[in-house]
From TrEMBL:
EC number: 2.7.1.177
UniProt source species: Sporomusa termitida
Keywords: ATP-binding, Kinase, Nucleotide-binding, Transferase
Record keyword Kinase present: yes
Ranges of residues in domain GHMP kinase N-terminal: 58-118
InterPro entries reported in the protein's UniProt record: GHMP_kinase_N_dom, PduX, Ribosomal_Su5_D2-typ_SF, Ribsml_uS5_D2-typ_fold_subgr
Protein's name in the database: L-threonine kinase
Lineage: Bacteria, Bacillati, Bacillota, Negativicutes, Selenomonadales
Alphabetical list of SUPFAM superfamilies matching this protein: Ribosomal protein S5 domain 2-like (SSF54211)
Length: 293
């Protein structure tokens, strides 16, 4: 039986930082996916090393001596802060477990495996979650997102997640911005609780601005100005990546195209990628019949 598992990517994070020194992010899953399919023959020749490692660790965890063949299809940009590795790894873990042991891993089990490989985004958890992407100490669902569209822009370059999270100055810089980050968390959590998209946008913008002391993006301030002018609810950022997103509530999409054009004129070094939807995270599993499991 062929098994397909899809995992969403992200447009950075709604919030990221530390609370009392403990790392966390609030996920920003979007409808831009990585899809892993089981294939016969046990081949993983074209699978990236981190994904192959996740499969091996999954089989070790399940104590199943099996050879799993996988194919990964994804056009999520790599090294941009769009959770491309986390999407690949989480989908591969689940596909391997289903193929080798006919069992479904819990999100916590996937997280535990993924965190042994690299800092991990929690996009494979259902809903929007607050997640410790380094050690997994925090795993808390905050709710379901209201309708929000995000125009995704790339400021250029690539960021290595492992290198970024081993910066010698990172802990001190995160401690310095904890007051702003706590305000951002409160806004986003309240927005998710009440379905108020504007609160989510305000919290995401506050976190993006606070992160400028850690990973500066010259285009951020002009993007915030343009987003305000065209009725967007805020700007989200990849706190350890290069993408930025301009967020629009469902009733403010009339200014969407004009805003994109304005940003491209103000910031010619920035590339518009596509417009996506903020979604509830989680894996989508299908079989030969195409039905979700």
């Amino acid at each position: 039986m062929t098994i397909k598992v899809k995992a969403p990517g992200s447009c950075g994070e709604l919030v990221q930082g530390t609370i009392n020194g403990v790392n966390f992010l609030i996920t920003c899953p979007v409808d831009w996916y990585s899809e892993v399919t089981t294939v016969s023959g046990g081949s993983m020749a074209e699978v990236r090393p981190k994904t192959a490692a996740a499969v091996c660790k999954t089989l070790e965890y399940l104590r199943v001596p099996a050879a799993i063949g996988l194919k990964v299809e994804s056009d999520l940009p790599v090294g941009k802060g769009m959770a491309s590795s986390s999407a690949d790894i989480s989908a591969a873990c689940q596909a391997a477990a289903l193929a080798a042991a006919a069992t479904t891993l819990t999100c916590d089990e996937i997280a535990d495996i993924a965190l042994t490989i690299e800092p991990t985004d929690g996009v494979f958890y259902p809903g929007i979650i607050m997640f410790d992407h380094v050690q997994g100490q925090i795993r808390r669902c905050l709710g379901q997102p209201p309708p929000i569209h995000i125009a995704v822009f790339d400021a250029g370059g690539q960021i290595d997640t492992l290198v970024f999270n081993h910066r010698a100055d990172l802990a001190a810089l995160n401690r310095a911005k904890e007051p702003q980050v706590m305000k951002a968390v409160a806004l986003v959590a309240q927005g998710l609780k009440t379905g108020d998209a504007r609160l989510i946008g305000q919290g995401a913008t506050l976190s993006a601005v606070a992160n400028q002391q850690i990973l500066y993006k010259p285009c951020l301030e002009p993007m915030i100005t343009a987003s305000n002018h065209f009725g967007a609810i805020g700007v989200c950022a990849a706190h350890s990546g290069t993408v930025l997103g301009v967020m629009f509530s469902a009733d403010a999409m009339s200014g969407h195209e004009a805003c994109i054009k304005e940003i491209c004129q103000l910031c010619p070094e920035v590339a518009y990628l596509k417009t996506v939807r903020l979604i509830a995270g989680g894996l989508i599993i299908t079989g030969d019949d195409g039905n979700e499991r």
